[in-house]
Amino acid sequence: MECCKTKTGAIIVRTKEQAKKERSTCGYRYRLISKEDKDVAAYVHIVDIQDSKPHYHKRTAEIYYVLEGDGEIILDGKKHQISKGSIMHIPPNIVHSAVGSMQVLVVGIPDISEEDIFFPDLK
What we know:
This protein has 123 residues and is mainly β. The protein has a domain at 37-116: Jelly Rolls (Sandwich), CATH 2.60.120.10. It contains no helices and nine strands. The protein has strands at residues 2-6, 9-12, 20-24, 27-33, 43-49, 61-75, 78-83, 87-90, 96-109. The radius of gyration is 15 Å and the shape is globular.
């Protein structure tokens, strides 16, 4: 729910249960702060990692923070073990995917847009 607008942006207070759940490239996401919200600095999703597909963004940087679970994140082909409490900064143009059973807080700066998801040619 949106609480109120200010001169500098929107104040938003929302629980995971109030967020829209949808399928995404990495599994299922809960859109805590997303495209339906106006005047926000970044988009924030909780993602349940399942069948993550390698992809990259041309303009979006992402910060991942593992809330629960463990597994691997693959960044430009290099595997990194991650678990609860791990944090990653993924700049634009880095091919990334994840394997394992994890719940991850994802912050997209400036946003997380379907128009900015690209899939590498994996021959």
